[in-house]
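Re: How this chain folds, sequence and tokenised backbone to follow

Filed under: protein folding, tokenised backbone structure, sequence and structure records.

Contents: The amino acid chain and a row of whole-number tokens, matched residue for residue.

Body of memo: The sequence and its backbone structure tokens, given next.
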Amino acid sequence: MKALSRDLSWLRFNARVLQEAQSDNVPLLERLKFLAIFSSNLDEFFKVRVATLRRLAKLKKKTRAKLGESPRRVLKEVLAEVGRQQQEFGATFREQLLPALNEQHIHLLSETELTDKQREWTLRYFREKVRDLLSPVVLDETLHHLFLKDQAVYLTFFLRQPHDRKAKLDAERVLTMELPTKRHGGRFVRLPDEGEERYVLFLDDVIRVGAAELFPAYEQVTVNAIKLSRDAELDIEEEVSGDLMEKIRSSLAKRATGFPARLLYDPEMPAEALRAVKQKTGITDEELVEGSRYHNFRDFFGFPSFEEPAFHYPEWPALAHPTLPRTGSLLAAISQRDHLLHPPYQSFDYLTRLLREAAEDPCVSAISITLYRVASKSAVVKALLKAAKRGKQVTAVVELKARFDEESNLFWADKLKRAGANVVFTPPELKCHSKLLLIARREADETTRRYAYFSTGNFNESTAGLYTDHGLFTADERLTRESAAVFEYLHDQSVVPELQYLLVAPFGLRTGLNELIDYEIKQARKGKDAYIILKVNAVEDTGIMAKLYEASKAGVRIELIVRGIGRLVPGLPECSANIHQRGIVDRYLEHSRVYVFGHGGEEKVYVSSADWMTRNLDRRVEVAFPILDEGLRAEVRQLLDFQRHDNVKARDFDNKFIGPAEGGKPLRAQEATYAWLKGLKRRQQRKRA
């Protein structure tokens, strides 16, 4: 079966991020942020995927043969593509963004470009604000091992030729220290403006200016930057024994000291300094990656904003919901009808308001929720704590294996336990990735009614302002009853619920999708209209890809909107002639998953937390929920159609922009979505009138 490597496909996605940094249609300082995103993505890629490939490559030959593809070959291809992208990244920064900044009277200087007046100011700033933050370590025979923190920038100092040749000093010395970005309050320093000209300096270069004062005994001081990424893949899913919570705590400690995955170094770094670092850290040539003068471009998230609107995306204030009340009871509104929420276009505050209302409502008896990633100052968890303290039965299914968020999740789990909540951890081999909220309330007639929220996105106020998601508020008993069954399964996996409406992994999502695809295949073979529209972050599972190839050969029209990994190859005459794929990268991260099936004219629309990856279908608790309300189904389809017809930010399978047809108008999906949702309430009012 024809399929791309998962890792090369992911690198194609990061190339699309880099395209945004290169685009003149993106506001200037937003382009810098896309460089930061690209850099941050690549850091994680090395920590997780490259580190994993290196470990797989070290397996015995017979074991490697069972993997289906050679990790050594894939690793070679991956590193070659990373090298190409790094070159393009550097050229984008130097040849596009720095000149564009200069045109706007913003100058990011190096220490060699400072005027005498600026150098004097920088030296004074170094003495007053920076020098006391520095503590270099000498790399000599007294130091047995040098530990470099993961993802931190370090500066190396190569000292040569003492001023006093008779002094008892080494002719050459190497020192290193962590760049004090956090203690300094950021990576960048603004110099005094000169008229309309504005000047910015890396903290690295402030230190370079003052380096001679740090080491007055030496004639020459050379300063370079290095950065280490450590192996972060803990393989927790493979652990099946022992106390999981203690394993997580232990794994967090191991992560900080994990094996090196990549050491980025300045190519201008003296060979003697690089050799000393390798010797003291144990890093080999295999982990060395030539970088540039500066590392950690993710620090450009903190680049000065200059408070000029033209440098940023126009403001899109979160919209009020057309059918949910701004004040008053949300539970009452949900009891009347279903409502769809679309963060970040619409305010995520409706969800936190609902939780606060449930916590305070004396008729609410129980709240159940799944927590995968929560904000550091989580209003969601604070509402749950309040509910628990008021005597309500609060059940929180907390995912301990949410990579890079384990520590935060442990913190909130401990808080909830102490407040009296029932905290549930899934077994080691099963992640809970679904986003579910269920509220039980005693109604006026003494019956208990359930209220549910199903979502594609996390219960996280921070990401809710950056990620596009869909959430369904409903009191429809067909869905709330099955949501309760999913929570029962999370308590006890020995009893698999029989579900009619929800498609739930790991026991029903794969089979349900296969049945829906098979129905389209049968329709196509009968000569009837058959189609599938799929919007996800990733299509990676070989079984699902084979089924989509089968559907294409049968004549089913398949449209894929894939943000990230897309291993399936569209447009091949022998198997995928009816498959078309596009991906969108814009100001918001596309995060929602939507599955649409023609189903013989009775179109089925599912919204889900699950991508079409093996881990989502087989090793996670995921939920795909149907949109049963006809009006809301049309709403989801309208937003999906904007994505299908985007000709501004959409790229095809080969990362080429899909422009408007000749004479056609440009359509940017995210912009069109915001405008459409902004006018939704007005349209509904006119319709009712």
About this structure: The radius of gyration is 28 Å. Residues 109 and 499 are 62 Å apart (CA to CA). The chain is about 40% helix and 20% strand. The longest strand covers residues 218-230.
